[in-house]
Please model this.
Amino acid sequence: MLDCAIIGGGPAGLSAGLYATRGGLKDVTLFEMGLPGGQITQSSEIENYPGVFREDPPVTGMELMEAWQPQCFHFGLKHEMKKVERVAKTGEHFTITLEGGETVESKTAIVCTGSTPKRAGFKGEDEFFGRGVSTCATCDGFFYKGKPVTVLGGGDTALEEAYYLSNIVSDVYLVHRRDTFRAAPSTVERVMRKDNIHLVLDSVVEEAIGDATGLQAVKVKNLKTGEEKILETPGLFVFVGHNVNNEVLKDPSGNFICETNEQGQVVVDLSMRTSLPGLFVAGDLRIEAPKQVVSAAGDGAVAALQVISYIQEQS
Ligand code: FAD
Ligand code: NAP
Model:
């Protein structure tokens, strides 16, 4: 019987493992289906995680997360490179079902499976992801200071992020496939008032164009006229929605084992407690997540400290 099963080895899961083991728990296993590190390992540069800033060459996401591993595993955290299929509460304990059917019992569980930005599906999107194509304006906007960028999407995220970017970059070309926005009217009005946001409506991104140095331009197509044009922007921000990786929290009937909101994000309190006692959720998977490495790591630490208290209360 594990003291704690941690599902997902991004910043939230790794820091949860560090705090759980350093806090005295003996049997803690991190189940991560790939190499630990999480989605930030896809980023070519990170400059907003305190303490690791380097200008040239910048710190990569991979480099940042490699440095976490010796520390996070130093205090006894075990790692199993396995995909978790399901987390279920059976009586007082949790049963973790792994891919292939093997099961593991645990007193508590911290689920940190993160989120996956939706891809729009245009040509070159995957090739230039992290090299000009981004899904995080807070993280990458500053790299385009004084330069033009393209933003794709018509929801609240796209318009809010377009507005954020317009204060950093020279021009924002906001590409949306319809001529009305899904975003809140007040947000639309705010965007409309910005001189350097240019609307490219009824249009989709056809292709991200670049070379070995990264993205150079974006080909867009007007769906009504068929006209194609090239936007010479070295940055393309894709905000077409976000999927939280919440599948492990569904029972065999497809119902969530804990409370979630309409987007499938898990409802937690400030201690990362879910509605199911003994089950904690940290990082991008939770409601109102700022979707930053630093906050995911903080969540993981909070959840681990709560797990320690929970186990003490139960014994
Ligand atoms: P994740 O990092 O998503 O980690 C979840 C982990 O769970 C993954 O490793 C995944 O393999 C694993 N997993 C999922 N399902 C299962 C399963 N069923 N079984 C086992 N394992 C599973 N943030 C910043 O602060 N600064 C930046 O500059 C920045 N830049 C970014 C650039 C890019 C390109 C991207 C994509 C994101 C960026 N972010 C940045 C956001 C940041 O990466 C996330 O907010 C953060 O990684 C969330 O951490 P997490 O631990 O909650 O989840
Ligand atoms: P969203 O509301 O799902 O919007 C996604 C946008 O991307 C839509 O405009 C959609 O176009 C477009 N899109 C989807 N797939 C596309 C594709 N393949 N190619 C081109 N465009 C595509 O996602 P979101 O903006 O991330 O918001 C998610 C949820 O969070 C929403 O409920 C939103 O209201 C909420 N949110 C709220 C706030 C806030 O309250 N301040 C801020 C951010 C997010 P269509 O419009 O044509 O479908």
Observations:
- The chain has two domains: 2-117+242-314, 133-238.
- The mean pLDDT is 96.
- The helical segments are 11-22, 61-74, 137-140, 156-166, 185-192, 293-314.
